[in-house]
Amino acid sequence: MKRSLPFVILLALLTAGCATPQNHYDPIESTNRVTDKINDGIDRISLKPAARGYNAIVPKPMRTAVSNFFDNTTYPNTVLNDFLQGKGGQGFSDLFRLLINSTLGVAGFVDVATPMGFERHEEDFGQTLATWGVGQGAYIVYPLLGPNSLRDTPDMITETATDPLFWAGFFLAPYVTIPVTVAKYIDKRSRLLEASNMRDELALDPYVFTREAWRQHREYLIYDGHPPVPPASKSDDGWSEVDFDSEDSPAPETSQPKTRISMAKTAEASTATTPAAEPHVAEVPVASLTNADGAANPENGHSYIINLSSYQNEAEAAARQGQLARLGIESEIFTVKIGDITWYRLRNKNRVSAGEAAQELQRLKELSGIQDAWLELDDKRK
């Protein structure tokens, strides 16, 4: 496994220039997907069952104590990176927290520092590099270790070097260190059971869901819980300011569909996501498909696409795609770029003729509950 890490990093560097505009942070997606499938397969037959058994057998107070202990052993990494990021006050606070929990808290099994006012923080060398201006680099899925990035990879070294359990391994017998290490990873996996179950229920594409969730979590940590809101040019009614009558209006830049789904059943999301307000630049009015008497124009031989909804976040689109599949609606995620914003459209997989368009559009609106669905001409190139 150690030999594979430099290879993956080198591959990410070599292929970084080949990334597509809408996926520039994941230039080796095909390789990552293979690794992710292998990791998931190993997890399903080992760590996940072990974590479920651990949660079922070990009482909650004991699990909390174990989690506290392992959190405390990795806390020197937080203290170190507090100071590397120039957070002197937080650094001393975290140092006192570490000392208090390591002594009064019985090696960290009991968190006595939090009630005393020493809050827990989460810092690492990846966040430190971000504060120093280093870009995220390519998204990487490491064998057995899971999601990461080029910028966050060096934290593997600092986290290991500051972990007292690592150094204890040089002095303690394997029959002590091996069970402790196994317990550490089972504890870590048990904390992620709820999140992984939600991912499996909501997303038809678990890879995309995991990637976007990981990236958003990293951004949350880097900005200490206050990530910047992406700038967007919007009018008072929430629509992007696009001059539909101007010849200079930005034309959508399209790409091939990223995901095609089957009729596999997925659990419906507990809360519905709200479609983003993408400007319908190429919308075809239903009224234009009929003659003056309301009948379909027999000379119209075009086919049409029904766009159901649109999102600025691919993970949200994938989650909504799962809901539609449960309703029997086959959809695909299709990316378009309008101005500086990339949208992830959910559109009906089946094309419709001019005579079918109005009726099918209304049917899908009623079935999905999405009233903002719209028609678009299928120019055979999409």
TrEMBL record:
<dbReference type="GO" id="GO:0016020">
    <property type="term" value="C:membrane"/>
</dbReference>
<dbReference type="GO" id="GO:0042834">
    <property type="term" value="F:peptidoglycan binding"/>
</dbReference>
<keyword id="KW-0732">Signal</keyword>
<protein>
    <recommendedName>
        <fullName>SPOR domain-containing protein</fullName>
    </recommendedName>
</protein>
<dbReference type="Pfam" id="PF04333">
    <property type="entry name" value="MlaA"/>
</dbReference>
<comment type="similarity">
    <text>Belongs to the MlaA family.</text>
</comment>
<feature type="compositionally biased region" description="Low complexity">
    <location>
        <begin position="264"/>
        <end position="281"/>
    </location>
</feature>
<feature type="domain" description="SPOR">
    <location>
        <begin position="298"/>
        <end position="377"/>
    </location>
</feature>
<dbReference type="Pfam" id="PF05036">
    <property type="entry name" value="SPOR"/>
</dbReference>
<feature type="signal peptide">
    <location>
        <begin position="1"/>
        <end position="21"/>
    </location>
</feature>
<dbReference type="InterPro" id="IPR007428">
    <property type="entry name" value="MlaA"/>
</dbReference>
<dbReference type="GO" id="GO:0120010">
    <property type="term" value="P:intermembrane phospholipid transfer"/>
</dbReference>
<feature type="compositionally biased region" description="Acidic residues">
    <location>
        <begin position="238"/>
        <end position="250"/>
    </location>
</feature>
<dbReference type="InterPro" id="IPR007730">
    <property type="entry name" value="SPOR-like_dom"/>
</dbReference>
<dbReference type="InterPro" id="IPR036680">
    <property type="entry name" value="SPOR-like_sf"/>
</dbReference>
<feature type="region of interest" description="Disordered">
    <location>
        <begin position="225"/>
        <end position="281"/>
    </location>
</feature>
